[in-house]
Specification:
copper; alpha+beta; 5-stranded mixed beta sheet; 12 strands; binds 2-acetamido-2-deoxy-beta-D-glucopyranose; 6 helices; Coagulation Factor XIII, Chain A, domain 1; binds copper (II) ion; AA9_LPMO; 5-stranded antiparallel beta sheet
């Protein structure tokens, strides 16, 4: 009897650990949806690089910071254009909603230099930031909370960017554990696109991943993140300017350090004007790992403000609880089974 109970508790614990993290489930480019690879499963025909775990990347110097946990090149390079709308849809490890609500979404691009993106080694990539979204301007919380509520996040590719193959590195950072050094959860993703057109725009500066962040950046170590009036400072470089005069810069600046913090945006909380949030189409096809988990991850039943499913706790022990916090999930899941 007791060992059965222990087994059940163990199973729930495993399940909830998977649900507590997540991955980029699909990308839609100008309305065409491409399903992502399901982490740690057989690679599918997808432009999104396969990662082998939904666990967050930890540590700003982690080599997995470029494209995610043990990322493998993806099979497809899909068409896009300067000015294309790109919508990112995230999911929890169980296929339900993204489980976090505190921290930024940032998007970078990098030329797949000298090859097509399906063969490009992302550790050589020279990244430039094209979008960032943090706290909403009306102080109603984080844009990431909308992702947790099931919405996708859309950006517009730079309108004058040169034709060619690019990785789009779209990243969520979850900050509920970032009260201590190393607690921030990084969720990078890489999508392989081929930009058409005949522009020649290039970024004015590039950075490396790892390299662009430090574990003590004010946007990565955030002990005050739940304090009233907290103003988020984005890590990494400022959003690059794209211009035809920048071509040489983009090629030669391979080891450019992140811009000094004095040039970084300080309290700008808005998604850039080109970005928007929209509902994820519920009819999107694609893998749905377990049907039982879908309802479990839904945050809508929670009435508290700490509703991040991976522990958006305000106490100082939230890093540990991020990993071991099965209780609420067990309850939710049980009621789901009735
Ligand atoms: C990179 O990701 C793989 C797969 O999840 C993991 O085994 C490895 O430990 C990670 N590397 C670091 C430095 O964390
Ligand atoms: C690149 O352009 C951005 C946006 O105008 C600016 O904030 C940044 O300082 C520039 N970086 C360099 C290295 O010139
Ligand atoms: Cu998580």
């Amino acid at each position: 009897m007791e060992s059965q109970y222990t087994l059940i508790v163990l199973l729930f614990t495993l399940i909830t650990q998977v649900l507590a993290h997540g991955y980029l489930k699909s990308v839609a480019i100008d309305g065409t949806t491409y399903e992502g690879n399901v982490p740690d499963q057989t690679p599918s025909n997808s432009p999104i690089r396969l990662i082998d775990s939904v666990e967050p990347v930890k540590g700003a110097s982690n080599p997995n910071l470029s494209c995610g946990q043990d990322a493998q090149n993806a099979a497809l390079v899909v068409p896009a254009n300067p000015g294309s709308q790109v919508a990112f849809s995230w999911a929890s490890g169980g296929g339900g909603n993204w489980p976090h609500n505190t921290g930024p979404l940032m998007t970078y691009m990098a030329v797949c230099d000298g090859t097509t993106c399906d063969k490009f080694d992302a550790s050589n990539a020279r990244w430039f930031k094209i979008d960032e979204a943090g706290q909403k301007s009306d102080s109603s919380g984080w844009v990431q909370a909308d992702i947790m509520n099931g919405q996708s996040y859309s950006i517009t590719l730079p309108s004058d960017i040169a034709a060619g193959d690019y990785l789009i590195r779209h990243e969520i950072i979850a900050l509920q554990g970032a009260v201590s050094v190393g607690g921030a959860e990084f969720y990078p993703s890489c999508t392989q696109v081929r930009v058409g057109g005949n522009n020649d725009g290039a970024p004015n500066a590039t950075v490396s991943f790892p390299g662009a962040y430090s574990d003590t950046d004010p946007g990565i170590l955030t002990p005050n993140v739940y304090n009233p009036g907290f103003e988020y400072v984005f890590p990494g470089p400022p959003i690059a300017s794209i211009g035809s005069g920048n071509g040489n810069n983009a090629v030669s600046n391979s080891d450019a350090p992140p811009a000094p913090s004095s040039t970084a945006p300080t309290s700008s909380a808005l998604p850039s004007s080109s970005a928007s949030i929209s509902d994820v189409p519920t009819s999107a096809p694609g893998p749905s790992p377990t049907s039982a988990s879908t309802s479990v991850a839904s945050p809508s039943s929670s009435s508290t403000s700490n509703s991040g499913s991976c522990g958006d706790w305000k106490s100082n022990d939230n890093w540990a609880r991020d990993t071991y916090r099965p209780r609420r999930f067990v309850k939710t899941r049980r009621s789901g089974l009735h």
